[in-house]
Design goal:
Elements lengths: L4 E6 L5 H15 L3 E6 L1 H11 L4 E4 L13 H7 L1 H22 L3 E5 L11 E4 L9 H14 L5 E4 L24 E3 L17 E4 L6 H13 L6 E4 L8 E4 L2 E4 L4 H10 L3 E3 L3 H9 L5 E3 L6 H12 L4 E2 L7 H6 L13 H12 L4
Parallel strand pairs: 1-2, 1-4, 2-3, 4-5, 5-6, 6-7, 8-9, 8-12, 9-11, 12-13, 13-14
Antiparallel strand pairs: 10-11
Length: 358
Amino acid sequence: MTAKKILFGVFDWGLGHAMRNMPLIQALLENGHHLEIISTGRALTVLKRRFGDVCQYHDVPSVFCPYTESRHLTLNVLFSLPAILFSLHQARRISERIIRKGRYDVVISDCRLDVYDQVENSFLINHQLRIKTFFGAQQVIEAWLCRKVSRYGKVIVPDFPHSENMSGVLSHDLLFFDSDRVAYIGILSNLKKRDCKKDIDCFISISRPEPQRTVLERKILAHARFLPGTIVIAGGNPDITEVKTFSGVTYYGYLSPARQEEMMNRASFFISRSGYTTLMELAEMDMKAALLIPMPGQTEQEYLADYYESRGWFHHTHQDRLSLQTDIEACQGFKGFSPPWRTEESVRKFMDVVGCRR
């Protein structure tokens, strides 16, 4: 197989999409393909730091982000719908110019609905083919998403196809999607399990997007100083490189993926949002002791936190009721999620789906 010219679109609401795509991008590069990345904001910053001059980059604004400090995110999304659709239209205009000029062999998009070429060479990565909301709206949104993804030859879901899966109803038991066009490849994680000494009692990772990242950070900092043992906090802001130490707590404004992996391997207990990328990282690293804090109003994270609690995998608490000492004690008896295969096998499946394994 000759080397292919590939455009890879990466969503930018938070850093999770950028992180989970790193092993896929690395595999494409190792197979000798020429790669260009289209993203924006801090997601693009992180990808540039990871891959440097090996890739070419396009900074294209993404869909308008409706996150606020309010818990009523669903209502805010509805009120922001004109801005969201307009921004998607504007992003598509720019992306389409890049695609026409670039003449790519393969176009891959992780949740960026503005990045696609012909059906035959376009692939969408998405773990959320159904938005968790009240039932009637779920059906309408799933039908709308199904029409949107008809522009892609395959929808690649980073999850398992059977009943013991990580995304639940978000990507299973679909009503409108043709099952032949949906490929379940398994979990994706940039982090790997290592054998090392467990010398961190609790590692707390605070992820984007704003403004809820800062809201949670303030609450965590107010509680963390009262926890026993060695506590490490990662602020999840790549614009801040400062390190602070106080009352047995070490605070990093941002940790590189390599340092994040190190801290998670050294930690006996882990606290984070219930974002899907983070949950895949917990499965990849075989972590059993963790507390999840879904972002208020983010229905995906709230659903996943409830889903994992009901399966006995991880305990969760709500941000406005956070009491770290009590919440950590309530995590006893949970077993974590043991995946049938891990990222290495998932990457092989991905390469076969997009036809890029050499």
